[in-house]
Write a structure and sequence with these properties.
Its EC number is 6.1.1.-. Belongs to the class-I aminoacyl-tRNA synthetase family. It comes from Methylobacterium oryzihabitans. By secondary structure, this protein is an alpha/beta fold. It is built from ten helices and twelve strands. The strands form four sheets. It has a four-stranded mixed beta sheet. It has a three-stranded parallel beta sheet with strand order 1-2-3. A three-stranded antiparallel beta sheet has the order 4-5-8.
């Protein structure tokens, strides 16, 4: 059987913090325990916030942490043509439609929220007769998945495979309907996080996804996209989040202390490992102290 493949996939839109370090170390620990491969992917689809210097800083921080990944590093910004082709395929099947609504308009019309807490899109632009004319006139637009049509075309019994430890898997039903008509391509690029991550995991042969618990609900949408695109579904492990003293999850947007700042203060990589509950194992690979 092929070796398991895991990946750590940060966005280079800020400096890595302890939450990223925990996720990277856990991916490395699982890869070592499974005798699998470990990949690094830079999810840099945001053309404004993701910068080359931040991408270089991500790689530098991970090297300082003592982690190594297979080359080459996959950068999503280099694969926009592939994402556009995937999007075009969904459009041709009637599974995606253009959306011209502003965030304010969506918030004003929404009657609920999606699992991320964002206003649930009410389908305002679905079937809009002037959509073609608006696109031809250059009006900015995103592309949304037609959730109802997508679920009708996908196979029955969508499910998420979950693993708690190597060899310990279970299955739970997926509920993609709670995402409504999710954005699968932004106004500025021909993809979104959801579409790109599903495609990349398949292209890279990722068999096990280890990421934060805040992305658990997104997996329901991801298995729907995998079914529509005929892609294999990895097994998922969503780990607990590292939080600050106030109980808030660490976040770049909140200015959580970066690894770079800890390094300047003289904190060493072994200290970070210990703080996050890891110790070196055979060959220096991290082991989670369970």
């Amino acid at each position: 059987m092929p070796s398991p493949v895991l990946r750590f996939a940060p966005s280079p839109n800020g400096r890595l913090h302890l939450g990223h370090a925990y996720s990277a170390l856990l991916n490395a620990a699982f890869a070592a325990e499974m005798r699998g491969r470990l990949l690094l992917r830079l999810e840099d689809i945001d053309p404004l916030r993701c910068r080359p210097d931040l991408a270089a800083a991500v790689i530098d921080d991970l090297s300082w942490l003592g982690l190594s990944f297979e080359a080459p590093v996959r950068r999503q910004s280099e694969h926009m043509a592939d994402y556009r082709a995937v999007l075009d395929g969904l459009r041709e099947r009637g599974l995606a439609y253009p959306c011209f609504c502003s965030r304010r308009a969506v918030a004003a019309a929404a009657s609920g929220s999606d699992p991320d807490g964002a206003p649930l899109y009410p389908g305002t632009c679905r079937g809009r007769p002037d959509a073609g004319a608006l696109i031809a006139a250059g009006h900015p637009h995103a592309w949304r998945l037609d959730g109802e049509a997508a679920r009708a075309q996908a196979r029955d019994g969508l499910a998420v495979t979950v693993f708690a430890a190597p060899g310990a898997t279970s299955v739970r039903p997926a509920a993609p309907a709670r995402w409504g008509d999710a954005v699968i391509a932004r106004k500025d690029v021909p993809t979104s996080y959801h579409l790109a991550v599903v495609w990349d995991d398949a292209v890279q042969g990722v068999s096990h996804v280890v990421r934060g618990r805040d992305l658990d609900a997104a997996t329901d949408l991801h298995v729907l996209l995998q079914a529509l695109l005929g892609l294999p579904g990895p097994a998922y492990h969503h780990h607990a989040l590292i939080r600050d003293p106030a109980g808030e999850k660490l976040s770049k947007s909140l200015g959580s202390v970066a690894l770079a700042a800890l390094r300047r203060e003289g904190v060493t990589a072994p200290e970070v490992w210990r703080r996050l509950g890891f110790r070196p194992g055979p060959g220096g690979a991290p082991i989670l102290i369970r």
